Amino acid sequence: MYRRTFCKTTLAAAVAATIPGCGRDMAPAPADAGSLIQAISLAGEELSIEATAVSELADSLSGRLYLQADEGYDAAKRVWNGMFDHKQPAMVVQCGGTDDVVNAIDFARDRNLLVSVKGGGHSYPGKCTSDGGMMIDLSQMQTVDVDPDRMTARVGGGALLGHLDTATLEHDLITTTGTVSHTGVGGFTLGGGMGRTDRMTGLAIDNLLAATVVTASGDVVRASEEESADLLWGLRGGGGNFGVVTEFVFRLHPFNPTVYGGDLVYAIDKDFLEFYAELLDSVPDEANIEPFFAPGDDGNMMAIVGVVWNGDHAAGAKALAPMLEFPGLIGGEFGPMSYGVIQTQWDGLTAHGAQNYLKSGFLNELTPEVIEIMVDFAKRGTTSSWFQHLGGATARVAQDATAFAHRNVALNFGIQYASNDPAQNETGVAAVREFYAALEPHFAGFYTNLHDDDNTETKVWGNYGPNYPRLVELKNQYDPTNLFRLNANVKPTV
Question: What mean pLDDT comes out for the span 349-357?
Fold first, then answer.
């Protein structure tokens, strides 16, 4: 039985696949006791669930439950990556609050039902959905409450990065968020959380003060430095391995929403990447410099370098002057810019529905060998690729202070295929894999948020390094049956 029960007359009681209406605004109809919902178990086996049990779950929710036959199901199950949007969960539980999450987890655990969790739905490998499982959808839980006096923000588990940026910038405050505003706060944070201010304010996890978590047992746990500190440690980089986070509390920092920066365009060659490597070693924490390799108007591949200076504008102009003086500069300029606008400028390039495939890896430095490989593949024009600039505040946190182990890397390098034409998928994926294979010997692990299904259990183990045994202990404690397995999975040993 579920922890709390709410009367919900807008949900139909007839919930069998052959009986539409669970997600519709209509009066309850009597369920056919003999009807069954076909689903998939944790082990990937076929599973039949009684219609009456699903009806009881639907009635317990303050949110809504959708089955495949229901109007609104397609919208509810939607995910960002078009490569996986075709998947058909057996049911989508659109949660209205923490109690709904508890009820959904209790239901899934008791029936050994495969579970995925969707916040923003931005998982590159499609881990937020499944064929035949239960999707726990947090998209209705988007509240952001800013306390400017305490400089904290309380954020619902389904909020998007754009919601968080908008709410904090109104008070001239900021916490680390990513580069695409329609990304979910939850998945972004739990994997580490890199963004345009992380060199100054640390990773998102370095600003995570507390979290409310529903564990596999259905218990609601408050994780902070004062209570369940071990769980907070695991949430800071361990991904969604330990439960569903329904609320985050973040530290905020004073921030001028008008930053200094711009986009500069360079030819992709050895000289440019050597120059970029020198910049990495010389610029202060206020600078975030991230090249993106893409075709220019003439079809030739260019390095489009996004620069954000989070500090005094005069100091930024002085520190960034070498970028304007570099002989390989093709065009672009610096000036005062709205940080809020910068945070949405990639949204159009990462729209919902496109076919996406990505592989990434951390780099300690741009060695001559790495530069040669990057120039070769970038000029082929078969993939796009980009850097995330690390160091600064992220590197001043001890390796074992959080689950995120990669504190001393200089860059995250992503290799990406994106297209609106599924017919191009085979060629595009092959091109990404070829580029990655050439660089793989030089990578120092990968970013959990950008993992892919080519990463084996061994690679996940290696990625967490010396922190992995502690993560396994937490997994054994909070999720011994591996209910939360659709992620960069830490497997229990009990």
Answer: 93
